[in-house]
Amino acid sequence: MSRDEILAAIQTLLTEQMAHPHMQGFAFEARLNEDLYLDSVLILQILLNLELEYNLAMPEEAIASQDLETVADLVGLYLPKLAVPAFPMTGGTTDEGVHGEAYYDIKVHCFVSCVCDGLKRNGLDQRPFYFGVWDVKFTVSDRFELLYHSPEIKQDFFREWFTQLYTVPIREWYNPAKSKAENLETLIDLVENRRETGSVMVMLDMFHLPERENKFNQNPFPHYLMLQKTADPEKWFVHDPDYRWEGEIDRKTVINAIMQPTVGGGYVFDNALARNPAPEDLKAYFEACFVPDRNPIADAVRSIVTAHLEGYDGLTLADLTAAVRELPIIAIRKYAYEHGFAFFWRALKLPASEFEAWCEEIEALFQALKNLHYSCMKLGQTGDRTHAAAVFQRLDEADRQEFRLKARLGEVFGLWCNHNVPVMPLKRVAG
Asked: pLDDT tens digit string along 239-296?
């Protein structure tokens, strides 16, 4: 198909089959997220429909591409001799590598990003705290739906360990026993009286902040960020470390996002209290986080797919696409492995070339999970049970890749312990 034919096919799919409500700005140069409100899942839906309706097969390496900014980029995937960009690597510049001072942060967990922001500002290394992110808790609902956020998910584990590691107490100001209006009064008072080194964190529904980039375009999209007052009483300064953005937003707009019934939560802490963690505490934290013998996300998706294949409680394959919709949000958390590898590599002065090789393995795991998501969508949309084999192959592949990462990470953790955590001498028993 020519460029214009592919463009027309995408427009037809969005208009007729997907009934997308934001087509007024559709054009070759239209931005997928900002102009057309297409999130990563909807883009995968387009790729799948192009394959099923127009026989335009998508190369596997393109499914996980994060460099699709415009409709032109999407069309370009199907044009001949076009190199498909990979997901951007992190870990600093090419010249510095893992042992340099510069490195990119990755948006993987909003609560962790908020509390770690103060560590970076105080010149402390926040990367060890990401040990708790790659297998962070999620939920599988009683309808076998994968949820990155639910009322059952609390931040107590991260709060308690952050205080133990960095000596910074994190106080929960939001009281679920109070009304939304009463909690808002508390928040306003905290923002108005915030200390210079203090942070006021609040959960809001990002879906109701249309000014902000939302690559997942979830509705609702619970998300933590931090607030400060400005010289203009009608505006608040919004600091979002997870999405690496800050700026002024109309106060009423922010409050509207906070007051949504889908969200509720908030914390305060003082960055000035942060100290470097003791090696013994870091060892205990890693051991509390590390799950060497299983991969919770692969296990969960396997149970979800099985439930839909076997029709548990009336489930059908048509329900599967919605059931795994939030898999990309959880998959992105696997990039936290890079922070873990980077911390141990720097501490042990291991070869930078091997670190880069493991970064490629992390990228391959993310690719495998995106391919898994695509295969699940294909199985769900077609209802063709012969596609189930590909889903379970993807699951096995993701399992193998993550177990390789965990095996090597466990090895370097052991080396780090040998160099940094003193062995307590055995007590002599009186005889």
From this structure: 998 877 889 999 999 999 999 999 999 999 998 899 999 999 999 999 999 999 999 9
CA dist 342 and 127 (Å) reads: 8
Structure-block tokens of residue 214 = 């939302």
Q: What is the pTM of this model?
A: 0.83
User: Please, where in the chain does CATH 1.10.1200.10 lie?
Assistant: 3-76
Q: Distance between CA atoms of 175 and 56, rounded to whole angstroms?
A: 52
With beta carbons less than 8 A apart as the criterion, state whether 185 and 179 touch.
Answer: no
Q: What pLDDT, in 10s, does the model give residues 24-72?
A: 889 888 888 878 888 778 888 888 888 888 888 776 666 766 678 888 8
| CATH topology assigned to domain 3-76 | 1.10.1200
Fold of 110-273: Cathepsin B; Chain A (3.90.70)
Q: DSSP string of 229-275? A: E-SSTTEEEEEETTTTEEEEEEHHHHHHHHT-TT---EEEEEGGG--
